[in-house]
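Dear all,

This email documents one entry for the complex benchmark we are building for the journal club exercise. For each entry we list the sequence lines for every component of the assembly. Then comes the predicted three-dimensional structure of the complex as a token string, followed by one or two observations. Please use this as the template for your own entries, and keep the labels exactly as they appear.
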Amino acid sequence: MSYTGGHILLSSQREGQISRFPAWVMVVVPLGAILFQVYVPLFFEFLSFLEMPLLVVVYFALMRRSQIAGLTVGALVGLAQDSLSKNPLGMLGIVNTLVGYFAASVGLRLDVDHPLIRMLLTFFFFLFHQLFYWLMARALLGQQLAFEVQRTLVLGLLNAVVGISLFHFLDKLRKAT
Amino acid sequence: MESFLNRYRSITVLLLVILAQLVLVAFQVKNDRDVRMIRVWTVTAVTPVARLVEGLRGGSLGFIRNYVMLRDTHEENRRLQAEVGRLKLDNYYLKSELNMAERAKALAVFQSQTPSKTVAATVIGIGAGTNSKVVMVDRGTVSGVERGMAVVTPDGIVGKVITAYPMASSVLLITDPDFAAGVVSQKSRVHGTLKGQGTPVCRVDYVPFEEKVEPGEWLYTSGDDRIFPRGFPVGVVKVVRGAQPFKEILVDPSGMARGLEDVLILVEGVHQPIPDSPPANQPVFIGSPPPADDGKAPDNPRNGPPGAPAGTEADKLRTQYQDIGAAQGHKFGEGVPGSKPPDFNLKPGPAGAPAGSGAAPPPSKAAPPPGGASHP
């Protein structure tokens, strides 16, 4: 599917085609994103700001345009992230589940092939991810994590910029319709 | 009912998944237990790929270094670095013993005691998640690693194993907010609890206000936590602030000062005494060498006469008094008590002859005896 006009709202369900991906993409890409997060900052510490798993969840949820598929990808990726951290299992799982669900809901209504829409959505979901995790850590675990608004906004912007390039690359892995 | 569920299928699934994960979190938090199975699955899925990537990275880098650039030098360097690390630990152990007792006794004690048994491990990944200070290392239960074991480098403690999998382990770093260890100060033997803050600097809690701890003082593990053996370096006290009822102490940890790539897991820890002197590998400041003597008259009168040797003020003063003594035929250290001392108000000329006393040094009463000018 290619972006053809200036509109960003879908006038009908038929306009929003469901993107399909080969099975290996659905396994390798999230695994690669998790691996990126745990391995690459070892050598390039400045890349630790990148929330690759979140970007992948947002992408698949937006493009699959299925709320159940979105929340499933979000839950699995979130639980995998939890498994590799010291947090109780489910903390990032819940956050990513919600991100996947809401991203898929948005994908049903917006033309998510539009780069500007993608950037705004990635920025918004990054902020939602950070804020919701901070709230849950305080409410469920009693952790007093710092929430730096300015830093979070900058990181959200950086992730959104990287997200556009990543989404463009992942578009090439879609099955031809 | 069925039509209702079909209509609200997505939101129903969402609520079920969220609820399931909330129950999962609640179970872990309330029982303080981990759902190990899911973690094992993920680690088993991720670590082989991480090993593969690390192998490819190391292999390609190794090829470039070993065969293209330096051939065998890289391998030799790795071997020597490993040996230096081992020798540092041995050296540290020996020095701490020698500081406490005589050499013969220390050697006897050293022979009778076995140093900590360690397993070398390489960091292959960092923990996922916000503010995470956890790393993954490539040694697990197969290598004898167990949960709770201490992780150190030759420079100091690094963290502790929080989860041991068959082929890998998670290490909670000293900088993590959940980390805590018992420490003791080197000079005054004040006990406290070291805690991470999520930043490169740690803090020490529970040191009473009236105890004396100074910046620059070294902290060592106290062994009270039953994880870290006593006597391992922890770091240098950076800031001490007086507060009630406990002091506010910030510590610069030494274990990760030179990066975190290879670590040692203490399989069998051996307690060691707290040394009286800081670790031998503490950096020492060495000033720049003195400028070359170009024969010109110095601008600053404190620098002494032309041709005077460079050095400290004491060196210059001693040389000046030796010249005065030589000009008056006086030999220091040979005069009997009550004999006339040389006149320190006379200043020797350039050729060694006595000159006027215009720019003379302070009177002899205030000056130290020539032989007493010590060299630092």
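Observations: The two ends of chain A are 8 Å apart (CA to CA). Chain A touches chain B at residues 31, 34-35, 37-39, 41-42, 48, 53, 67-68, 71-72, 75, 79-94, 97-98, 101, 130, 133, 137, 140-141, 143, 145 (CB under 8 Å).
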